[in-house]
């Protein structure tokens, strides 16, 4: 999976500075001239700014790391889980640890400073905003790439699959037996009996791989016509049961046999296209 280059070092420095000023002055009278004359302000500013830079750097590195492993579009729930843990929880924990040490140096108990009840909540809010920025930035940076990839593969024989860490390139005409919708998940069944999930819809796959023999037979099934020997009539009028070639029957799950039917709506297109194979 491609690693994204954000080129946002200046933004990260400004974000750290802005977050520092927000935390230091939120809920207090904004008197910068008075604050600059106080040594305690400078101690707090230097520590807060350094911690902010560290946290922003951690979030940046973790985001780049996750970009290379969990695509936001293809693995959204996995990605958001890791992003919240590595991009919000861990940085917030680091912030608490550093400021606990800071207040100990000042001979103060962090519990009695109000940090945990007020400042920490604002820190978490700012962390969430920064992670949201990276999500939006990712979508914008990859939008053109996704569009080009879709265009380049519109007439391709290759179906790219990202499944549980596996990155596969299936030749539709020779590798794919059928594609079906299982509740809300689209599944691809290969001629070897393996099954993978994809984020593509049946309608999209039907359009994209029509020239490679993919044909819709009902609302839930696409079949590779090159894997069929023919079809037989069933009791219901204008409905048919596809006959899979003997070499591929072992890969067909019997649990799907009662749904593997060409319904009336798709029967004419199915018969015409099968006759041309």
From TrEMBL:
Stretches that traverse the bilayer: 12-28, 40-59, 80-105, 120-136
Q: Which GO terms describe its molecular function?
A: DNA binding
Enumerate the UniProt keywords alphabetically: Membrane, Transmembrane, Transmembrane helix
Q: Which Pfam families does this one have? A: LytTR (PF04397)
Does the keyword section mention Ribosomal protein? no
Q: Which residues form the HTH LytTR-type domain?
A: 166-275
On whether Transmembrane helix is a keyword of this UniProt record, the answer is yes
InterPro entries recorded for this chain? LytTR_DNA-bd_dom (IPR007492)
Q: What is this protein called in UniProt?
A: HTH LytTR-type domain-containing protein
- Name the species this protein comes from: Flavobacterium zepuense
């Amino acid at each position: 999976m491609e690693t994204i280059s954000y080129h946002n070092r200046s933004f990260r420095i400004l974000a750290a500075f802005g977050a520092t000023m927000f935390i230091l002055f939120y809920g207090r009278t904004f008197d910068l001239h008075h604050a600059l004359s106080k040594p305690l302000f400078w101690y707090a500013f230097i520590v807060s700014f350094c911690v902010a830079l560290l946290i922003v750097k951690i979030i940046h590195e973790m985001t780049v790391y996750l970009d290379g492993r969990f695509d936001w579009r293809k693995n959204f729930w996995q990605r958001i889980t890791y992003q919240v843990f590595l991009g919000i929880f861990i940085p917030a924990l680091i912030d608490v640890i550093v400021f606990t040490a800071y207040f100990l140096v000042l001979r103060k108990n962090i519990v009695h400073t109000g940090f945990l009840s007020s400042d920490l909540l604002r820190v978490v809010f700012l962390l969430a905003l920064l992670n949201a920025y990276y999500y939006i930035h990712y979508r914008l940076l990859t939008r053109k790439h996704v569009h080009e990839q879709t265009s380049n593969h519109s007439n391709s024989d290759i179906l790219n699959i990202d499944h549980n860490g596996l990155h596969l390139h299936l030749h539709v005409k020779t590798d794919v037996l059928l594609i079906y919708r299982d509740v809300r998940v689209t599944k691809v069944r290969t001629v070897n009996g393996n099954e993978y999930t994809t984020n593509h819809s049946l309608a999209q796959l039907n359009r994209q791989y029509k020239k490679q023999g993919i044909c819709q037979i009902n609302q839930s099934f696409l079949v590779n016509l090159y894997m069929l020997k023919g079809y037989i009539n069933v009791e219901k009028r204008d409905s048919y049961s596809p006959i899979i070639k003997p070499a591929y029957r072992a890969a067909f799950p019997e649990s799907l046999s009662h749904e593997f039917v060409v319904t009336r709506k798709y029967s004419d297109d199915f018969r015409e296209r099968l006759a041309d194979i």
